[in-house]
């Protein structure tokens, strides 16, 4: 195996990426907002909980803290430019739904809007906010989930043209291209 080099500790998150990206939507006092996020983690099955890390300087942080609800919307590669825009612009400067060309639509359980163009949605009620470092971890209890049948059954249906979007770094993104199946006890080919 080739020799490995030391990497700066601040790049540990990039080692764990590329993770799936989401568009986090929130609503406070009739103002909606959408923000790109890649720091996500499942936290439990029963009750179903998910965490998302958000910097305290973000408008989304303020809106979720005040409204105690949010939605995670799973975009596809077709939304690459909109996803990038939602990650680098601030909702304090204007309506990111409008500037990114995204359509807010009603959610089933939370007041935060969903992104109509996304292929899956997870609606969450805020359970806890933990200040752990320079980002806060928002823990949400999953209240409703919806997904496009052609892309999700009990798991993502990945093929060579999988449209799911993953963040690499800065303005670099990737899609998943192939799945692999482990077969224990069989001879390797």
Automatic annotation (TrEMBL):
<dbReference type="InterPro" id="IPR012349">
    <property type="entry name" value="Split_barrel_FMN-bd"/>
</dbReference>
<dbReference type="GO" id="GO:0016646">
    <property type="term" value="F:oxidoreductase activity, acting on the CH-NH group of donors, NAD or NADP as acceptor"/>
</dbReference>
<feature type="domain" description="Flavin reductase like">
    <location>
        <begin position="14"/>
        <end position="159"/>
    </location>
</feature>
<dbReference type="GO" id="GO:0010181">
    <property type="term" value="F:FMN binding"/>
</dbReference>
<dbReference type="InterPro" id="IPR052174">
    <property type="entry name" value="Flavoredoxin"/>
</dbReference>
<comment type="similarity">
    <text>Belongs to the flavoredoxin family.</text>
</comment>
<dbReference type="InterPro" id="IPR002563">
    <property type="entry name" value="Flavin_Rdtase-like_dom"/>
</dbReference>
<keyword id="KW-0285">Flavoprotein</keyword>
<protein>
    <submittedName>
        <fullName>Flavin reductase domain protein FMN-binding protein</fullName>
    </submittedName>
</protein>
<dbReference type="Pfam" id="PF01613">
    <property type="entry name" value="Flavin_Reduct"/>
</dbReference>
């Amino acid at each position: 195996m080739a020799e490995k080099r030391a990497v700066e500790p601040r790049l540990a998150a990039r080692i764990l990426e590329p993770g799936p990206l989401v568009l986090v939507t929130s609503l406070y006092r009739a103002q909606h907002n959408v923000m790109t996020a890649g720091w996500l983690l499942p936290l439990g099955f029963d009750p179903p909980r998910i965490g998302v890390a958000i910097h305290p300087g973000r408008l989304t942080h303020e809106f979720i803290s005040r409204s105690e609800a949010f939605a995670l919307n799973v975009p596809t590669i077709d939304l690459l430019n909109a996803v990038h825009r939602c990650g680098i612009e601030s909702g304090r400067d204007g309506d990111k739904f409008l500037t990114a060309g995204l359509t807010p639509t009603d959610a089933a359980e939370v007041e935060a809007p969903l992104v109509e163009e996304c292929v899956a949605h997870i609606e969450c009620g805020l359970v806890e906010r933990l200040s752990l470092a320079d980002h806060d971890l928002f823990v949400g209890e999953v209240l409703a989930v919806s997904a496009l049948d052609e892309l999700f059954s009990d798991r993502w249906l990945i093929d060579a043209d999988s449209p799911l979007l993953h963040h690499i770094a800065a303005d670099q993104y990737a899609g998943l291209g192939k799945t692999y199946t482990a077969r224990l006890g069989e001879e390797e080919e």
